[in-house]
Amino acid sequence: MANPILQVRDLKTQFATEGGIVKAVDGISFELYPGESLGIVGESGSGKSMTALSLLRLVPDPGRIVGGQVLFRDQDLLQLTGEEIREIRGRDIAMIFQDPQSSLNPVLQTGFQVDEAMLAHGKPKDQARARTLELLKKVRIPAAESRYKDFPHQLSGGMRQRAMIAMGLANAPAILIADEPTTALDVTVQAQILELLADLNRELGTAIIMITHNMGVVAGLCTRVLVMYAGEIVEQGPVEQIFANPQHPYTWSLLKSMPRVDALRHERLRSIEGMAPDLLRPPSGCRFHPRCPFRIEKCFTNEPRLEEVGPGQQAACWVTMDRARKEMGADELKDIRPGAGSKVHPGQEI
Ligand code: SF4
Fold first, then answer.
1. Is the Cα torsion angle 285, 288, 289, 294 positive or negative in sign?
2. pLDDT tens for each residue of 142-170
3. How many helices and strands, by DSSP H and E, does the chain display?
4. Where are the domains of the chain?
5. Going by CA atoms, what residue is nearest to atom 3 of ligand 1?
6. Ligand 1, atom 7: nearest CA belongs to which residue?
7. Predicted ipTM?
8. Nearest CA-CA partner of 163 in 116, 126, 122
């Protein structure tokens, strides 16, 4: 395998609030390889978006990156000056957001805003204009020449997101970070945008980091996935393998709660029991234990670390789903409330 283009090591991002320190990203490490498509999945509050913002040092106040390294082409982005990181943003690593409306300037022509992304990095005006038209066609905006002059409000939501993707790709970045880019769109447009990103990933070799709460999006686009829970990575590995054989109970629950085309009509979708944890006072031991059907005594006090559970697959769990299937009947479990599989409840004799 080629060398990673991005190496994140022990990244920590925190928010100082009146109630105390919120550890939004709590010591995560991962790699991104050239041209790959990596999904970061989790519920809201899992730290996935804060991870994306931390990579480009765009964490909003009062958030602070308090530790770790983000190595891009062997330089630590966390150590660069403000001017140096601005050069990297948009040129080498670009980011697109959920709501293109808030990222586009309403009083400027859409095409000109794509030009600007290149002008800011020194491309001559005529070349920028020609490339914008080429990009608008590439992201499948019909009648690109006339759409160039449209203001954002004249475009549909899907078209605006396509324009944002064109802007993201303007300087041919090595990495495109997409934070829930399809969540605000209707299902058909969502599918078109995902297909477009997959094509661009294949055609241009741009590595993609897709931030999403939706395992379906991961299945459609990514080759590798990181599953985040309460600021930590709880499982990571190749998408096919994790979908076929998840080893962390949280990943297993996420997959159970995903609509499947082959599901029986009467089979009800199971949602994950319980609330996402309060990051001001994260649970002791394994942070998933208050919601986990397979928790054992140790889970209440000892925090598990990521360990190899299959080729290229790691999970942070004292039990893992292989054991939960064998010893706790996970596959037949109808009730997935906390402790339902292991019959372990707080305060109970074990
Ligand atoms: S079995 Fe224990 S360690 Fe594994 S996810 Fe459940 S609570 Fe966490």
1. negative
2. 999 999 999 999 999 889 999 999 999 99
3. 12, 12
4. 94-172
5. 317
6. 289
7. 1.00
8. 116
